[in-house]
Structures are given as C-alpha cells and as structure tokens.
Amino acid sequence: MQTDQKLTAEQAMEARHSVRKYDPNVAIPQGELNEILRLAASAPSSWNLQHWRFLVVTDPAIKQKLLPIAYNQQQVIDAYATIIILGDLEADKAATVVYDQALAKGLVSQQVRDTMISQVENAYKNNPEMARDEAIRNSSYAAMQLMLAAKAKGYDTCPMGGYDKAKLVEALNIPSRYIPSLMLTIGKAAVQAHPTDRLGLDQLVIENSF
C-alpha cells in the first residue's frame, strides 16, 4: 500500500503503537518493505558488527506453521509479514569483512582496521557472555528502528515476545548461530491499537545516582 504520508522522527515515535489486528488484504510493496528493512539495518551496533538478521515470513503456509508457535495469535496470519529478528551469536566473524571493506573504501587506516579486529576477537574470546548479550542488545536496536521506519511509511507493527523459541527454531530451520530475540508483525491496522498511558519522567528518570 503506497502512502504519501511523511512523518518526522518525533511524529513516528508518538504515532507508533502495538497493533494486534491487521487487514489481511493489504500488501506491502516489496520496494517499500526493502526500504523499511534497509532503514532498520542502519541501526547502531557494537564495533559495527551488525548483529541482526531479518527472517521475513510472508508465505501463508509458513504463517500457518507460526500460528501455534505464537500461541495462536491471529496477527501472525493477518499481518502482511511476520519478521523474526535474529541475533548473531557469532557476530565476531563479521569483523574482518566489515573492516576490510572499510579499509578498501578509505574509511579507516590499516592500523585502525587491525586494532578493531583485535578488540573484537579478544572481547569475544575472554567474555563467555559477550556473544549472547551483544546479539540480543544489538538486534533489539534494529527491531526498534524497523518499527519506527514502518510507522514513518504508514504501516503498523507489534513486537511479540509470546512464542515458543525452541519450536520456532525447529520449524524455520534457524541455524544455531542465530538466536531469536523478537517476533514482529507488520502490516496495516484493521483496528487501531488501544491507547496507553505512560509513567511520568518523575517516575522514570534518576538524576546522577540513586
């Protein structure tokens, strides 16, 4: 569904709400979906390793497989796509590719390239929890950016934590390198999200120290 609506970043943030009922007749043109994913992939990441992968499910048969895995949440069927946000547990393997490309484009010096790769290798080697923590943290940045990009283009989303991760991995043949960090639906709302109230900054912000 093409939209001419233009939203500022602030407007997209305020307009985004979690939608659970979608119009199953609305398709997102591939070009628009690709642009949303491209914007999501511009999210920040530790060492620029880009720890995310987007597993995009639009096939009705695969959506049906997802339905019981998502505890029968109809949104996985009715939304145009259900996107599995994956975190890369072996993102350190991307360091050489990332920094060789940066070196070839003149974005970094040889010294910086070597230093950054060494930092990544040492960090992943010496901290057993690094891989999982970074995979979840950085893929979450991309997930949030995807939702904002979708809203800016007139589409709705819902982040989902309610699904069976083990069955999801099995059903979609997800390699052990990747961990599902979020399931996310995207499409056009059939019913607008319920309004929500938010805590005030006086309850959320701690100045300097507890």
Automatic annotation (TrEMBL):
Residue span, Nitroreductase domain: 14-188
Pfam families from the UniProt entry: Nitroreductase (PF00881)
GO MF: oxidoreductase activity
Keywords in alphabetical order: Oxidoreductase
Similarity annotation: Belongs to the nitroreductase family.
Full protein name: Nitroreductase
Organism field: Brevibacillus centrosporus
Classification of source organism: Bacteria, Bacillati, Bacillota, Bacilli, Bacillales
